[in-house]
Amino acid sequence: MTIRYASVDDLLEASRGSIQRLEPLDAYARVAAGALIVDIRPAWQRESDGEIPGSVVVERNHLEWRLHPESGASLPQAQAGQEWIVVCTEGYTSSLAAAALTSLSLPASDIVGGIHAWRDAGLPVVAGPTPVETVVPRHRTVTRSAPLGIADLA
56 phi and psi, to 5 degrees? Predict the structure, then answer.
């Protein structure tokens, strides 16, 4: 059975209804507890807006294969039970991507407002772009740091 939507907005609403959306500070706390952020933006956007230290870079077209532990093409971080927090620029594409991961029984959420909201919350952002399928270094030039002096993610 194929579910059909009248508009992209309807698809987005349905996707967001199937996932938990996190405010930036809540996402930051989840990372401290073991979640991993996956950045699905293309290189030009990561270069323009920066990257979250410690995040894993996986462009959207490879996401499901790289994060599902049994895909045969998964990254080392893709372990059973790993919690994923998807980030994009403003929190639209990340909602669709997180819903796709959830449909594969992977624990996934996204960040409300994307990297823009993360940065506006004063959380760490470093210069990019980092090569795909690698982890963003924690100690690169920070373009904005957290208000509490947090230098990198746990």
Answer: -100, 130
The residues pairing with 144 across neighbouring beta strands, listed in sequence order, are 125
Residue pLDDT, tens place only, 36-87: 999 999 999 999 999 999 999 999 999 999 999 999 999 999 999 999 999 9
At residue 51, the 3 state secondary structure works out as strand
Tokens describing residue 5? 């939507």
Q: Which two tokens stand for residue 8?
A: 């992209």
**Residue range 108-126, pLDDT digits in tens:** 999 999 999 999 999 999 9
Of 151, 149, 154, 146, the C-alpha closest to 24 is 146
Distance from the Cα of residue 88 to its chain's centroid: 6
Note if the pTM is more than 0.85: yes
- CB distance 37 to 85 below 8 Å: yes
Phi, psi of 45 (to 5 degrees): -75, -40
Which helix (H) or strand (E) is 11 found in, with range? helix 8-17
